[in-house]
Design a protein that fits this description.
3 helices; about 200 residues; alpha+beta
């Protein structure tokens, strides 16, 4: 009888703990991973007061329209340059290539960049940086534009998934230094995909 009581108390405790530990929010794996990172005290860019109240980022609903196949054109003779940031920091980048794609029947172009300092770090040797601005900035999305991570393609095309567009850390905390999106990467359209603007507490 005593064993049954102990088991009953233990099961109630486990259920209570499971209820307190809320599941990570997110419609897609990308959204869940980002939310998990932002909840994690060791990885989150959020200010402490925002992280304590954090329940999940606000995303546009996943839309396959914003997953596009872009033609990739390598631009090998570009000069490296110091990219402006939100602070005095000037990381060295190079324009790595150009992307041409069709979105909702319209033609668009974006430059894709490589951080010459970052490629020296293990795991980032083939990392490319795709920052962009669009007509949702300052309204539903962060005013300074958003970023997409990419890798050097093997072929002459690359998949751009705007559903994976995320905000620079500066959108959450002004202690960070973030690259300013080059004006040439302004898309004259609404990209209703990816992370929305963050509402601070």
């Amino acid at each position: 009888m005593r064993i049954l009581i102990v088991l009953f108390v233990l099961s109630i405790t486990l259920i209570s703990c499971a209820q307190k530990k809320r599941a990570i929010k997110g419609e897609t794996e990308f959204q869940r991973e980002l939310n998990a990172e932002y909840k994690d005290v060791t990885a989150s860019p959020l200010k402490e007061k925002d992280r304590k109240a954090f329940e999940g980022l606000d995303f546009y609903k996943f839309d396959s329209t914003y997953v596009v196949k872009a033609q990739f054109k390598r631009t090998p003779n570009e000069q490296s340059f110091k990219m402006k940031t939100t602070t005095a920091r000037l990381p060295v980048y190079v324009k790595y290539g150009e992307l041409e794609f069709i979105l909702k029947g319209e033609n668009f172009n974006l430059n894709i960049y490589q951080n010459l300092g970052l490629i020296e770090d293990e795991g980032f040797e083939d990392y490319l940086f795709l920052p962009f601005l669009d007509e949702t900035n300052g309204f539903e999305s962060y005013g300074g534009g958003r970023y997409i991570d990419a890798r050097i393609p093997i072929a002459d095309s690359i998949i751009i998934d705007f559903n994976k567009a995320y905000n620079p850390y500066c959108a959450y905390n002004d202690k960070y230094s973030c690259p300013i999106v080059p004006r040439v990467n302004y898309l004259r359209t609404r990209i209703e995909a990816g992370v929305k603007v963050f509402k601070k507490h």
